[in-house]
# Entry
Amino acid sequence: IGIVIGEVASLLLTRVIKSQIWGVSVHDPVTFGAVLAVLIAVGISACLVPARRATHVDPLVALRYE
# Structure
């Protein structure tokens, strides 16, 4: 369901972006690379805090609550 909603939303938002931003194509390699870099940075930063917190937990204590 999420893939279908995401695909429909991306098609609609592509038209909105084309009408709002002149001179920038959604298929422009620089734009595509910038979006990819931002998504990677957001993904890494979202995983960094829980991963760092997990390294400080004693495995026996964590398994005790399972």
The chain has a mean pLDDT of 83. Helices lie at 2-20, 29-55, 59-64. The radius of gyration is 20 Å. The CA atoms of residues 59 and 65 lie 10 Å apart.
